[in-house]
Amino acid sequence: MDTAISTERHGAHASLAAVGFFDLAHAAAVLRAVEDAPSQLRGCEHVDVDLTQLVRIDGTGAVMLARLLDRLDHDGLQARLAEDRNPEAVRLIALYRSRRTDVPLRSAGAAGVLTRLGAAIATLPGTARGALDFTGRCAAAVPKTIASPPSVNWGSLPMLIQSIGADAWLVTSAANLLVGLIIGFIGVSQLGRFGATSYVPELVVVTHFRELGALITAIIVAGRSGAGLASEIATMKVSEEIDALRSIGFDPVRWLVVPRCLALVIVLPILTWIGDVFALGGALIATTTMTDMPIRMYLTATAGAITGTNFLAGLIKSPFLALAIGIVACGQGLATQGGAAAVGDRTTTAVVLSIFSVIAINAVFTLLFVVIGV
Amino acid sequence: MAGDRPHIIVEDLRVAWGARVVLDRVSFQIERGITFAILGGSGCGKSTLLRYLIGLEQPQGGRIDIDGVGEPHRYEGIPPFGVLFQSGALFSSMTVEENLALPLTTWTSLRGPIVHDLVHAKLDLVGLGPFARHLPGEISGGMKKRAGIGRALMLEPDLLFFDEPSAGLDPITAVELDHLIVSLSRDLGITVVIVTHELPSIFLVAENCIVLDKEAKGIVATGPPARLREETTIPFVHNFFTRSSPSAPATGGR
To answer: A66–B130: do the CB atoms touch at under 8 Å?
Structure first.
């Protein structure tokens, strides 16, 4: 039996019969029938509605028939349901009609590009203010920590150093090895044009020790550990663990952020130094493979290039890069509101902002070194 | 006839986590159109049993049949039941309206104003009409559960599962939710299966029940809750329904 609404007209009076399956499985057919019905009743004043030919009706069918009846009422037709014929269907339709509250359909138009751009720019001052506010709270936490050491979760420090440092050295070292390899290959190919491959060891030391070592290591740590820190704290935020900490009298910045920043400050210079060694190894492989430079000669040239300035210029940036990663990641986590989607969004933002921050801080240091002649 | 066949049949169900047996040789039937409670103390396997009934886990033994369409964990396509999880389990990145629309737009070709109408009809049914455009984080726990019920109803199931519907609610909100469950069962003719240990809800909502016991790893009593409370001779069941404990000190008024 097809799903349909049949109508018969006798002057100003009409009868309307719902036939077949008025349920979710036949929703499309029901919708078509319901939308076509009013046009067949134009000019009528009374309509008798017969539901005895319904094979099945559920909530979906009842809602659509209820809407039809509302529409007929709105059009001025007096629609009458025969309640003693198929009382279950009548009851179901009456249930949905009696509970109806009218909520207008929201327009589906999407905001234009300019509107969205304007909305995003409008949030920038608030975002910047929030970031500065959180950075200030972190700075204020330092003297408070000194004054009240038990307000920090020192017990978590070893585990943090393990997870941020010991568990990460392999990936940061591998990344630096590959970067050293790349610098070696490029150095040999470019300096070799001028017969100056003997300067490749110095090139590697200057570029990697001063710049790339700290930067590459910080970027890897930002992506790996920064994401982990942000998502951990964000999850704590949405599950009310941060509120619980505050209700016990703990300051979340001192309890959570201080040990994480401290772990990063301790670990990042060590990872950077280890990464520098692996980069030297990568460049050694590249140079001695592509040229006839003996390994001993390469190592002697490298040792000569590793001056105190070159060595420290990179390492001195590491604590600042570590603080940037820690403050951004923890700040994003503490700013999370909502549920699972918000945790993901904040984690992504933490990684992007951390990476951008370490690049920006590295650029500032480079400029500073150039200005002061280091 | 389908109407005479029990809605749910469980035979010799065995549930184990590795070597630890949680439920063993559990058998019961749930008739069509009634409200049925799965009761028991904490850790007896009520919520675990529910997970198996809705097909989230595959039993280690025995058989579950819902409406004669086979084992729940093998279902593909539109589920023949709706589920309200304990905390509502609304998708936090979607509004209440979008949460309810999701099953409809996933499993039917309906779009546009009719989806809006069907969603709002269900929201009106559960008393959340004005809150359609709120995010789950912006509504109370009781409202989340109502929204979860609305979403569970969107595909017009004739079977609903509720996991601890009153958990975390104040007494007034809890009894309002109980009345909503009763009215849905009565007005829509839906079979309702509730996992709970809230005594007021049990006596208000359930027409029949089973009582699980952790020690027995299975059912220790079956029947209407009021009759079990009055007639049972099993100490655990008596203590459960009278809210008494053999180890609790006697309390007296001051």
So the answer is: no
